[in-house]
Amino acid sequence: MYSYKQPREKPIFDTFTKMWLIFVSIALIGVLGYGFYLYSKSSTFSSMVEKKNSKVKELEAYNSSLENKINSIEKKRYLYKKIKKSNNLLKNSMKNLFSLVPDQIVLSKLDMNSDRLKIEGFTLTKNAYKLLLEPPLKSIFTQSKVIFNFDPYKGKYKFVSINHYKEDK
Fold it and tell me: To 10 degrees, the CA torsion angle through 68, 70, 75, 76?
């Protein structure tokens, strides 16, 4: 075949197709770039969230340790108040007890618990104990028992008084 015309160059893509491909490529690059930007922001946001969560866990653990310390301090405070109250009560009880003891009676040993009092001492006569110390003890304690032994070397009676307090139920 032979043609009288010179063949002209025909591009694979015409101008409109080239423009269309360029715009589509630019749009595709823009969408992919924006997607990559969103992915990087998302990953940095995820890492920030993980850091914040770990910080929250650290703060919760610290808060828990502080609460444990507060509970421990409150228990110690409660025990301190209880002991202080008990000591004041014991101090007043001892002061009252010693004010009950007359001059004719000499105490040698005193053992006091929450519901029991054991007194050891010396008296000139049994009647001095029974008239001067026994009535106040019987008014305080529900059970009161005394044992006398005469000590010939001192010329006095040694007594052991055991007193119990029992609550009615």
Answer: 120
